[in-house]
Amino acid sequence: MQAVHFSQPSSSPPDVARFALSANERKVLQMVRLGQAATRAEITQATTLTAQSISRIVDSLVARGLLTLGERVIQGRGQPSVRLDLNRGAAHSIGLSIMTDAVSGAVMNLAGEVVATRWQHLVAFDQASILGLCRALYDELLGAAGLVTRDLAGVGVGVTGAFTGTRRQVNPPELLDALALVDLDQLLANTLERPVWVDNDGNVAAMGEALNGVGRRHTTFAYLFFAMGFGGGVVINGTLYPGVFGNAGEFAGILPPDQQDTRPTLELLRVLMARNGRHHRDIYDMIRHFDPDDPAIAEWLSLVVPKLSAVVSAISAVLDPEVIVLGGRLPRPLADQLVQAIGFYSVPRRGLIKPLPALLVTEVDGDAAAIGAAAVPLKVRFFG
């Protein structure tokens, strides 16, 4: 069976044809984005393509407005080279995150900069209401960023839940039952009238980290996504690894069934806070009023740290990544405590412990799933 991947959106209206690029064009844009090369000469040196081919590719990207010509750079003998830069405003994308308590969104430009964000509470859970809220948020984001529909390369959508193995159908929590076992990408494409890529929230957050966070320095990592549930994503050599069915990174599955009720979720923390007399309507409310000194945090840590130690040890043994990133909706003070508390199972041999991945806190500032979802169309169309 072929692995599920991001290569094809739900649909492609005629006006997005201008965003179609060759593999070599995407490679050049990626090199410029990462700062691996800033001139034609540097790109030629870093690839197997001829100088003539690079010149043709660069000229095409400049003509299409994706690259701009900057100042001249002196590089050894001969004529100074012209510096190449991404044209930030040449293309944009929107990311939506459908959660059990809200829908959040972000607009991202070609340089990966977030130029607008919005959030709306989810109060009605029938399909029409959820899709209608997505459309309202989409329109609000367009207005906030000063864009029109044709400026968008596409829309990425992250939703809580595992894939069923049938197209892009997701099996979400009960609160999102209206989105279960349906072709969600096509429903959203019809609603938004734009190409849509759908994935689970852990995968899109990992993609966002690859594009705009830890992934700029570490190309192979595992991403732990903390929210109402617990999951994540896997990035190998800068590319999301979805697995055969799209469920790579469902790290809660490492834990046995009798530990699922106390798996490391923010919903568990909310429940523990309520038992101690501090009630929050939902996870968003808990995060907004987060108190790092709440006594429930110590109880939560005592329950989840052993499980997270088992998870990161399994990740290290199976994937051997450079780093493991803690992210999702995890408040920064809580993430910092987890980094200090989590340990790896490793038995020394000859006094040596095998190399272990570093634990890092996400470097993506804001809603990880919405920002990551916005990164998906850009990654696929321009940097894939």
Q: How would you describe this protein?
A:
It comes from Tsuneonella aeria. With 384 residues, the chain is an alpha/beta fold. It folds into three domains: 14-88, Arc Repressor Mutant, subunit A (Orthogonal Bundle); 90-207 and 369-383, ATPase, nucleotide binding domain (Nucleotidyltransferase, domain 5, 2-Layer Sandwich); 217-363, Nucleotidyltransferase, domain 5 (2-Layer Sandwich). It is built from eleven helices and 14 strands. The strands form four sheets. A five-stranded mixed β-sheet has the order 5-4-3-6-9. It has a five-stranded mixed β-sheet with strand order 12-11-10-13-14, with helices on both faces. Strand 13, helix 10 (332-341) and strand 14 form a beta-alpha-beta unit. The chain is globular. Mean pLDDT is 90; it is low at 1-7.
Mean pLDDT: 90
Query: How much helix, percentage-wise, in residues?
Result: 25-40%
Q: Order the strands across the largest sheet as they lie in space.
A: 5-4-3-6-9
Please outline the major beta sheet. 5 strands, mixed
GO molecular function, one term: N-acylmannosamine kinase activity
Protein name: ROK family protein
GO biological process, one term: N-acetylneuraminate catabolic process
Organism: Tsuneonella aeria
